[in-house]
Automatic annotation (TrEMBL):
InterPro entries: AAA+_ATPase, ABC_transporter-like_ATP-bd, ABC_transporter-like_CS, MetN_ABC_transporter-like, P-loop_NTPase. It is found in: Cell inner membrane. Keywords: ATP-binding, Cell inner membrane, Cell membrane, Membrane, Nucleotide-binding, Translocase, Transport. This is Phosphonate transport system ATP-binding protein. Residues 4-216 form the ABC transporter domain. The lineage of its organism: Bacteria, Pseudomonadati, Pseudomonadota, Gammaproteobacteria, Pseudomonadales. The keyword Cell membrane applies. It is a peripheral membrane protein.
Amino acid sequence: MSGFDLSGLTASFSGKRVIGPLSLHVNPGDKIALVGKSGAGKSTLIRLIHERVNRNSSLIPQDLGLVNALSVFHNVFMGQLDRHSTWYNTVTLARPFSKDRAEVHTLLQSLGMTEKLWTPAASLSGGQRQRVAIARALYRNAPVLLADEPVSALDGPMANSVMTYLRDRFSTSIIALHDVELALNYCTRIVGIYDGQIALDQPSENLAASDIMSLY
Ligand SMILES: Nc1ncnc2c1ncn2[C@@H]1O[C@H](COP(=O)(O)OP(=O)(O)OP(=O)(O)O)[C@@H](O)[C@H]1O
């Protein structure tokens, strides 16, 4: 997918405008960090962007969107549900194909979670649940990653290794991040949100953490 233009993005709750109207031009290869204080509108903006680029994106929402009763395998497999027939998906629910088992296993290996392949999502820790949502996005393998605080429940080394992985696997990404150092280290462009508007839009290389702190 080449770059895309998003314009007229707005969102309101109970008549109160929380986003926009705003426009964002995303260049192919952009790795954008959305930063800003809690309540600024980052999650809402990720949701709005997802509505526009839906099928071309891999989404990691803040609430992760896992199905608790299903195994880790099946939650990851959901990343490609819309690419298979109903027949294929139904058979997979009962007896996954070996090709898919192998592919999901390899992804989980890179996230240190192979031993949980058949564990129901309900029995996982917060960090494990987050890694399942990450694996689902990787399995979907769409051209654009949209992620909302994707490593907030991971320890430092794991967070860094997952951010490296996401940076290498997705050519274009928009990631909401509270951690300013992660944003500067793993993203090429920083978009700061303040009161539902873009208050900062700069290449990461032009910024220091202190420049971003004015948004908080
Ligand atoms: N479902 C909802 N109903 C009512 N208000 C909402 C809803 N979702 C978000 N809001 C409001 O919209 C504003 C932006 O919220 P949003 O979750 O997008 O912020 P955020 O920057 O992602 O915050 P955080 O960093 O805490 O996740 C907030 O004032 C929030 O209270």
